[in-house]
Each structure stands twice: as structure tokens, then as C-alpha cells.
Amino acid sequence: MGDGAGRYYDRLADLWDELYAAAVPYDDGFKFIDKLRRRYRLEKAILDVGCGTGELLRRFEDAGYETYRADRSQEMVRRAREKCRQSLLKRATFQDVSVGRQLPIIASFFNSLAYCQTPTELTKTLKHLRGQLQAGGLVVFDLVTVDDPKKNTLVFDVKKFELAAAHVSRTFFGRALRRRFTSDMTYVIQWRSDEKQVISERTTRGCFSTEDVVRCIERAGLTPLEVSNGYMGKIPTFVGQAPH
Ligand SMILES: C[S@@+](CC[C@H](N)C(=O)[O-])C[C@H]1O[C@@H](n2cnc3c(N)ncnc32)[C@H](O)[C@@H]1O
Asked: Is the beta carbon of 125 within 6 A of some atom in ligand 1?
């Protein structure tokens, strides 16, 4: 199973919160999942796979949940450890994580499961996560989907960010080709100390339709409970339930 993220997150970890976290609806994500927990009468415990710097789990920790986190990137894990002191944290992939107990809820936020590059990989990953769930437990994740995963497209974008310690410009060049989305991201970082740094990394994600994802959930032995605009606006949120 390939590492579609490469070293991208290790190299971006120190800048991640300032570049991205401010625009991500972690509060809405927390509320959405906590409401599901109450509806299905689950205990307050959660594992976040692909947890990044721990922004989502911080909310669960504050709300008294027992929290567990896993991420493949050593540097993201280091940042998350600084932020969330209580939760058990592992450097682990979603394909192999286990925390020594069955969980009521597993979440994956901000398109992280797109690093499963094919429907087969996504199914295998969801099957593994199902094995970590209690009977009736939930897996909740958002995933960018496209109408036609076979359609080849190009995307180009340039953006600037004003951070506390640096001006950053980001060039994004992405292409969907044969059901995979490869993006080349180049960040030019002009530190206020006057040093300049360039980070250029490639990542590869899978291209899925919403129907593909629902099929993967079913093939993993989970019941698809809902597909909704849960917490990420237009990006669908998927909820699957382990058998009782
Ligand atoms: C788009 S970021 C989202 C991070 C975090 N969930 C957030 O909301 O900020 C994707 C994350 O998935 C992690 N990741 C990529 N492939 C992974 C894998 N196979 N297993 C676990 N984590 C992975 C990356 O290291 C990165 O932290």
C-alpha cells in the first residue's frame, strides 16, 4: 500500500495550523460527531486517524472524551503531542492502527482517507477500522468526491498567506489521471527574519465518487448510515456502523 503523502506533512507540520486549521470547521465536526454519539448512546471515547496536529481531538479532550490519535507523519504526531496532553498517541497508519481496546467512534477528518489511493485500499482500510470498533460503533469521515472519477482534469491555483512569522505563497498544481489525484505543492516561505525557504512536495490521493465510497463502506462490512453535508460544507461526510 503506497504512502501517497510522502514527506509532505512532515515538512509542513510547523506551519499546518496557521496555513489550514483556521479555515477548517473543527467545532462543527465536534458537534456533528458528539450528536451522533448521543443518538446511538455510545460512550465518550474516540480515535482520530490521520489526526494531524490534533485540532479536532483537542475539542473531544475538552469535552471529557477518552481520546486516541494516530498519524503516519512523525512531525504531525510531535505537534499533536504538544497540543493534546491526555490522549494516547501513536505514530501509526490507518491501515494498521490499534489502541488495545474496541472503540465506540473512529473519526477521520479533512479528507485524510483520500490517501487510500484505490477503492480496494479504501475498503481494506475501512475493514481494518471496523475491526477496531465495538459492536454498533461508528466510523465517521469526510472525503472529497467527484462525479466521474475516470475523468482526467487539471487544477492550478496560487495563494498567499500572511503568518505571524512569515509571508508564504503557495502554488498548487493538481491533476486527476486514471483515478488518482496527484498534486504538486510549492510553498515559498519568506521568514520575517529575512531567510527564504522553499518546500516542494508531491502527494497522491485516490479519486472516488460518492457511490464508490458507499460501496467501500458496505464491502468493509459496515452499514452506511448516512451521507450528508455533515460538517465540511459541500464535501460529503460518511457514517458507517459496525454490526451489532
Ligand atoms: C489533510 S491532513 C488532515 C489532518 C487532520 N485530520 C486535520 O484535520 O488537520 C491528512 C493527514 O493524514 C495523514 N496521513 C496520510 N496518510 C496516512 C496514513 N496512511 N495513515 C495515517 N495518517 C495518514 C497525514 O500525515 C496528515 O496528517
From this structure: no
Which of 115, 143, 185, 237 should be mutated for ligand 1, with most atoms under 8 A from CB? 115
Helix (H, G, I), strand (E, B) or coil at 148: coil
Q: What is the mean pLDDT of residues 106-119?
A: 97
Shared domain for 125 and 41, answered yes or no, is yes
Q: What pTM value is reported for the model?
A: 0.96
Instruction: Note the pLDDT tens digit of each residue in 133-148.
Output: 999 999 999 999 999 9
pLDDT attached to residue 137:
98
Nearest to 42 by CA among 126, 110, 133: 133
CA-closest residue to ligand 1 atom 12: 50
Q: Show the domain range for 140.
A: 8-146+208-241
Query: How far from the centroid of its chain's Cα atoms is residue 105's Cα?
Result: 15
Same domain, 181 and 215: no
Ligand 1 in contact with 140 (CB < 6 A)?
no
Classify the phi-psi angles of 17: left when phi > 0, otherwise alpha if psi is within -120 to 50, otherwise beta. Answer: alpha
pLDDT confidence of residue 21? 87
228 belongs to a structural domain: yes
